[in-house]
């Protein structure tokens, strides 16, 4: 083994565990900052990914307005086989705000489909809609 190969191997042995530990710590910190709706959104996105990965039947994104753009835009906006949809993710017992209801009504008036609620409510409704 050349000295360069030995150095590369030694670097991987030393740095890889540190990198993994940092990544695990960062993920744990992000999970701590995530609210209940964040977990619901993750479940819905995992379900949508089943139609995205390998099948290319669905495209979606999660807008992040940060004070700019139109208020009340849904948490997930996408298109399934040419049909537009939006999903307003809510935790159990919560409802959309009046402006969110208005945006969902605008989507439906334009021919799209709006969903809102928890993952356990939205996913079955989405499945019925795409059939």
**Cα-atom Rg, whole angstroms?**
21 Å
Q: Report strand %.
A: 15-25%
Largest sheet descriptor:
4 strands, mixed
CATH fold label of the largest domain: Trna Endonuclease, Chain: A, domain 1
Describe the overall structure:
The chain has 131 residues and is an alpha+beta fold. The chain folds into 2 domains: 1-33; 36-130, Trna Endonuclease, Chain: A, domain 1 (3-Layer(aba) Sandwich), CATH 3.40.1350. The chain has 4 helices and 4 strands. It has helices at residues 3-33, 36-52, 98-109, 119-130, and strands at residues 58-61, 76-80, 83-89, 113-117. The chain has a 4-stranded mixed β-sheet, sandwiched between helices. The radius of gyration is 21 Å and the shape is elongated.
Characteristics:
131 residues; alpha+beta; Trna Endonuclease, Chain: A, domain 1; 2 domains; 4-stranded mixed β-sheet; 55% helix; 16% strand; elongated
Structure at a glance:
This protein has 4 helices and 4 strands, in the order ααβββαβα. It has 131 residues and is α+β, with helices and mostly antiparallel strands.
Produce the secondary structure layout.
Blueprint: H1 3-33, H2 36-52, E1 58-61, E2 76-80, E3 83-89, H3 98-109, E4 113-117, H4 119-130
């Amino acid at each position: 083994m050349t000295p360069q190969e030995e150095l590369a191997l030694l670097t991987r042995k030393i740095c890889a565990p540190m990198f993994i530990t940092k990544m695990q710590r960062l993920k744990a910190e992000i999970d701590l900052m995530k609210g209940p709706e964040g977990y619901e959104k993750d479940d819905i996105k995992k379900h949508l990914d089943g139609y995205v990965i390998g099948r290319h039947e669905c495209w979606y994104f999660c807008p992040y307005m940060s004070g700019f753009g139109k208020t009340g835009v849904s948490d997930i906006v996408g298109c399934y086989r040419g049909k537009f949809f939006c999903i307003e993710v809510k935790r159990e017992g919560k409802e959309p705000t009046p402006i969110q209801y208005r945006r969902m009504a605008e989507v439906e008036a334009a021919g799209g489909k709006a969903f809102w609620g928890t993952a356990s409510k939205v996913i079955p409704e989405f499945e019925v809609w795409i059939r």
